[in-house]
Design a protein that fits this description.
By secondary structure, this protein is of the alpha/beta class. Helices cover 49% and strands 13% of the residues. The chain is built from eleven helices and eight strands. Strands 3-2-1-4-5-6-7-8 form an eight-stranded mixed β-sheet, with helices on both faces. Helix 4 links the parallel strand 4 and strand 5.
Length: 282
């Protein structure tokens, strides 16, 4: 892998990528919307250099690029600057939706420029390069989403990014498999957390709550711009998962209403068994 890399988008994830790759000895440059993000990242040795304007001179000087922006921005940015990339360039991303972006990007890029989808399953409820921390990738999962248009070289590049940033698990899924998985594991859980916070006025309860409510609603502190895009771009799959959850929730509600103690206990035993697979090992 080239020891030079360009990061487009210097928020929490882009900044954390830059920090981790620079620690591994890579020469990291960035393009960001705000000059203060570039200045902060240079001052704190997160990047080696960067700029806010997108020039062919800069973009074409890299053959490995990570784009860390919202899905719609990813599509529009590449549409505008696709001809800036030199032949042989491999581009990857960090977005949480794949079918709606991967195929469109692969179709739009010029011959000799390759896009390989990837998704770091990591984050925090804060934003901006000021909160960048490559430690968020430790013990996290990382997914590469190749298609039949991808070369072994591109797949290896995406996997190497995951290894360099020290993700615990690196998996390969098709874009379709990824979007089905993410609808349940991530998007549905965010929908539940938001609904818990909005179903009634609970603002007066913060002085009484225990850890259970805080833990369950941690992700309700949500970036409405990014997550609304993700929900709508995966709408068909997400709605099916929401319907499945509603059916199961109603079933549990009926068991409680009917005081069916043994059936309730069966649900809880099944829940505990399935949750044990997710418990983090020391």
């Amino acid at each position: 892998m080239s020891k030079k890399i360009l990061i487009v988008g210097l928020g929490l994830i882009g900044g954390s990528y830059a920090m981790g790759l620079k620690k591994k000895g890579y020469e990291v440059y960035a393009i960001a919307r705000r000059q203060d993000s570039i200045d902060y990242a240079i001052k704190n040795e997160i990047i080696d250099g960067g700029q806010t304007d997108v020039t062919k001179e800069l973009v074409s000087s890299f053959d490995r690029v990570v784009i860390s922006v919202y899905p719609k921005v990813l599509l529009s940015w590449l549409e505008e600057y696709k001809d800036f990339f030199k032949e042989g360039t491999i581009i990857t991303d960090v977005t949480g939706i794949k079918c709606e972006v991967v195929y469109k990007i692969q179709d739009m890029l010029p011959s000799g420029v390759e896009f390989i989808g990837a998704h770091p399953m990591a984050g925090r409820e804060v934003y901006g390069v000021e909160n960048a921390n490559d430690a968020i990738f430790k013990n996290a999962n990382y997914i590469v989403t190749p298609t039949d248009k991808n070369t072994a070289e591109a797949i290896d590049f995406a996997k190497e990014i995951g290894a360099l940033l020290e993700f615990k698990n690196i998996s390969i899924l098709s874009p379709e498999e990824h979007d089905r998985m993410i609808a349940f594991l991530s998007q549905l859980t965010h929908c539940i957390a938001v609904s818990l916070m909005t179903c009634k006025d609970n603002t007066h309860l913060h002085e009484y709550t225990g850890d259970s409510f805080r833990d369950l609603t941690r992700i309700a502190n949500i970036n409405e711009n990014m997550w609304s895009e993700l929900f709508l771009m995966n709408k068909d799959v997400l709605v099916k998962e929401m319907d499945c959850f509603l059916d199961e929730f109603k079933n549990l509600r009926d068991l409680i209403n009917n005081e069916d103690v043994e059936a309730i206990k069966d649900k809880m035993r099944l829940s505990s068994t399935r949750r044990s697979y997710f418990n983090k090992k020391a």
